[in-house]
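USER:
I wish I could look at a protein chain and see how it folds. I am handing you a single protein, as its sequence and its fold in token form. As I understand it, each token names a local backbone shape. I hope you can help me see how the letters and the tokens relate. The protein I mean follows directly.
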Amino acid sequence: HAQDQPQFSINAQTFRPAIGPENIFTVEGSRTPGRWVPMANAVFEWAYRPLRLLNDRDSMTVADTVPNMVTLHLTGGIGLTNWLSLGLDLPIVVYQGFDRNTPVRDVPNGSEPSLAGVGDLRVVGKIRILDNTVSGFGLAFVPQITFPTGNGQEFRGYDAFGFEPRLALDYRTKKGFIVALNLGVLLRTSEQQARNILVSHQVRYGLGAYLPLPKGFGLAGEVTGGTSFFNAEDIYTPLEAYLAVRW
């Protein structure tokens, strides 16, 4: 008797921009915007080869399953008090490519993913514990909840509710130099399967910094990632790095 293969489901839309003032890219700082101060952003993101399939024997590329992905992140929120804020992020994939070299067994339902669609809605709260508006160390509790509005079989959703309690610790100088560290645990209501990779609960981390330069310029960079636990399959360990010049 033929055995059913696990359903191939994975999220290639992994960029989660931080919401609010004095953050890096995805790493949150401890500052809140202030009482009744609104926040709104539209962020375009282009991902090159965010999902590739590799040969188990020699790690050669079998297919660039998602060779390109262009996403519009609509983010917004408001400061409810001087120490509490609430934000939303809705990723809208406006274009998603597909490599037809992808093996048939890895194409859910035997059909190509659609060219566009929504990702997972995210709700982010921030409770400031230590205030470093002038300078010094700051600390905040920054929990986030993700909703399965995307579709993992279309490669743009986690197919689960996710709850991630996080702590954001940062240090800020009077001249605007910022170093920020995030630590959290992502808890999921269900797992995702992609070949021998099981996407389950994760310990997540992020480290970022911003260096102000003369004439209004600045440099920013961060490293973020995670590692799965309670996982009998190959360990899922996403790792991303970002670098930017700001003016």
The two ends are 62 Å apart (CA to CA).
